Each structure stands twice: as C-alpha cells, then as structure tokens.
Amino acid sequence: MWKRRSMLEKSLLVLVGTLLFVVVVLGMLLNSADRRIQDARISIQDQPIDTLKSKAEQKAKLYYESCLDLNETIENLGAKPMLDLLVKIDGWNISKSNFSAAGCNLQKTLQIIQNEYCIGALFSYAVGEDDRNSSRHVIQIDQSGLTLPTCHPDRSERINSADEAILPE
User: Is the pTM of this model over 0.70?
Assistant: First the structure.
C-alpha cells in the first residue's frame, strides 16, 4: 500500500513538473510571438502602403488607417450627429427643456430606427422564407437585442447583384 501510494505521488510530481514546464515554454513562445507581431505592426505602420510587399499587408494597413480619425472629424463634430438624430426621432425628454410627448409618434420613430439605421428598437422584424413553403415569404418578428446592425440601406441591391454574378441562371 505504501509503495503504491509513494509511486503515485512521484508520478503526480513528475506530471505537475512537466505541466509547469509546458506552461512556462508556452508563455515564452506567446511573449515572443507577441513581440514579433508588435514589431511587424510598427514597421508596417511606418511604411507607405505602396512600399509594402504583400497584398495582405497592404489591406491590413488600409483597414487600420480607415479606422483612424486622422482629420479629427469625430472631435470636430462633437455631439452634433447624436443631437441631430434625437431631433429626427422626435427628441428625448432629457435632451431639451421644452420636450413634449404629445408631438411624438412611436411608429415613425420605430420606422426611422429600423429602416434607416437597421436597429430593432423594441423588436426586430424581417421578411424571410416560409419554413413550410419555400415559395412563400413571411414576416419574422423577434425580440430586439444588443446587436450590431445587420443591414445597410442598399444591402439588398448589393446582395442581389453579387448573387447574380455568382449563381448560375
């Protein structure tokens, strides 16, 4: 009994030691990879797009630069875009002192939010294929959630033209 227990303890110690070694080595590899990625990012950041060798680097740099606000448009506009949106959807009781709920139209507000910004305010709705009959369409209504918009005002036109280019007649 004692020998068996002693061997189990030794085996467990070897296993724990091996696992610790693996964790340390993986940590060192991850740090090394992080440093190499950081160095590559910095070198790509400093070079003009047309001097980058691969298309992947060029696309990554173009995407990175498109996310930057180089001319400080966001800072210059400040809260104006949000205030304009609030006026467009009949205001908000804390956004202006002379707010009146009598002039608000919930249906108009929901339509603007859904159709122009593709966000379901209280609920989301879409037109989809009927599960029982694929030649028919149904209106699908679902609870809204904290999601990113799934459409764009010209989305269907873009998707249809892409489908026509890919799908056979």
Answer: no
Q: Which amino acid is at 105?
A: N
Q: Residue 142 carries which DSSP code?
A: E
Separation between Cα atoms, residue 152 and residue 118, nearest integer Å: 7
* Cα 165 from chain centre: 27
Q: Provide the mean pLDDT of the chain.
A: 79
DSSP 139: E
What per-residue confidence (pLDDT) applies to 156?
A: 58
CA gap 16, 3 in Å, rounded: 20
Rounded Cα–Cα distance for residues 45 and 38 (Å):
10
Check whether 150 has a pLDDT greater than 90: no
| Confidence at residue 24, expressed as pLDDT on a 0 to 100 scale | 87
- Closest listed residue to residue 45, CA positions, set 62, 69, 31: 62
C-alpha to C-alpha distance for 106 and 112, rounded to whole angstroms: 10
Distance CA 15, CA 10 (A): 9
SS3 of residue 150 by DSSP? coil
Residue 74 has pLDDT above 70, yes or no: yes
The answer to whether residues 141 and 122 touch, using CB atoms and an 8 Å cutoff, is: no
Q: Look-up: residue for tokens 């030649």?
A: 135
Buried b (16+ CB within 10 A) or exposed e, 48-58: eeeebeeeebb
